Amino acid sequence: MTARLLIGRSPIPGRYRLSSLLVAVTVGLASTANAQTLQSLPLLADEATPVGALPPMALPMPASRDRNYWGLRLQVGERQERRGPEDLVAVGAGIDYQIAGGSILGLTGGYQRRQHCQPALSDCRGHSLFGLRGRFNVITGGPTVAGIIGDESAASTLGTEIGFGYAPKVSPGVNACTLDLGVPISVAMLQTIRVVTFITPGAVWNIDCSAANTPTGRSFMLGFGFGLLQLGSRGLDVNVGAQRIFRGTTGLQFGVSVSWVRLP
Amino acid sequence: MSASARAALCALGLAAASGCHHRLARGELPANEIETTLFLLGDAGEPDPRQVGSPLDSLAVQAAEAPERSVIVFLGDNVYPGGIPAEGAAEWADARRRLDAQVRAIPPGVRGIFVPGNHDWGDERAFGLYSIRLQEQMIASMARGRNVRMLPGNGCPGPVSVDFGRLRVVTLDTQWWLHSYIVRDSSSHCPEGTMGAVTAALRDQVKPPGDGRVVFVVGHHPLMTGGAHGGYCGVTGPFRRFGGTSQDILGGANQVLRDSLRSAFAGRPPLAYAAGHDHTLQVLRGGRNVDYVLVSGAGSPSKTECAVKLRESYYVTQHRAGFMRVDIMKGKGVLLRVFRYPATRSGALAFSRWLELR
User: Fold this and answer.
1) 3-state secondary structure (DSSP) of residue A83
2) A103 contact residues in B (CB cutoff 8 A)
3) Which residues contact B97 (CB under 8 A, 6 or more apart)?
């Protein structure tokens, strides 16, 4: 097990970490898969803050430039296939502010816990999580995609996003902090019930925000999914998303997001 | 969405999503129950010199079916690229040809209204006021006694109202608000000469006397749009706010215009505000101050553009020419239909909605 993957004070001095990594990999390969699954994995900062705990979503649907919109969001995400007996389940709620029908600033609060946790192996207590996120629609247009798929109403959006996440006490004495950047792309189509597909490539950095001098590092991630927009109400959207963080043990996350925008 | 798919949605109870109760049932409206038919076509100032073609000829055919109850409103940018120049200019003959194609498309007996757009104001240049007067004179000469005219006239901002049964059409010259050069001179004699006066007059005119009145306000610049002038459809879109161009939704002068119109509508919201400017077809939910915002600026097939479906949009199409038809029924009921070209296998009718339920 490498020190860089852990949250919490590393027992291994920095100059020995690379060699420790090699040793860990060698030992890991030599071990049986069953032995791995019986172990409880440490919780990574990437998994503990909203960017990794809650599912990805499509970029906001454009709206009138004359108005700013308040919205509410509920999200549930489960991270599976971690190399251990536990999955991570998180629920979150958020409030979003869409500026001039385009970009969104959002606040998120939530809670994450370990499912199937074995108290003998790990600290099974859950933790809260908080996030601040800006999602910016850079280009919204549609003729190219519309021409390809033959839908006159198709629109593609290229955006950027930046998020800051914080989760206190993910393990005793350890807080998790992350900063993430992404370049989400959405393609929406159909007139009546709007269907949107999206991918959310990005990178997330662990930030040391514990007194315990937690390690830092960068991971790449990729989210994808689809959504149904304006489902029965002009402001109601449902997104289903999956996300993988490209870091050894994080598994694949699935989740559902339901958001509602208040229209005047 | 196909009719069968829509029917399936309705059957599943997704009425709110599919808007079933607003949609047109199969079959045509009974002609004897239609009081007035209003056609909305904008930005038609670039007709093909080799043929009239759609949508202008399709509109003419529909209007000719019942000319006595039909009204065609051209929603500005009637002559690209710079309106009518002074006679003798190299562009004069072609400018005349562009306008003539539209005036000729108005069948005998049909009333025609040309609303000014920014390109008609000399492409927003200093010659604008004189160009708009030249266009008004040219329309009058081409009309040859028919009821075809430019409203508001003489470079005045309006509003000018015309009543057709229970329909009232309130016309505005929105470029007057945005023009950076001279907008009045000694021969203007406009009833309203300031923005405040225009707003006050508009406030009065959107409240016609009588019950069951249907008010359409028409101008060139839209109140809302998912097109290029709304800051969509391009890399520069979100940054147009900082460019300060008055032709865009994000421009400061444009904001003043729209705020003023909305404040005038606040007391008694008109059923719809119809405009062109963006070369697309859009039907949008207007909000508190106006029930519907229509963008029908796809009158020139060579100029059609991209548009994005907004959260307020009921319908949007991009890169298709077309026009809108509004049937005002006797007593109650206003049906909007959107026709776009080239037609698909299911025909040119792309969207319909009861703006006022029958």
Assistant:
1) coil
2) 238
3) B49
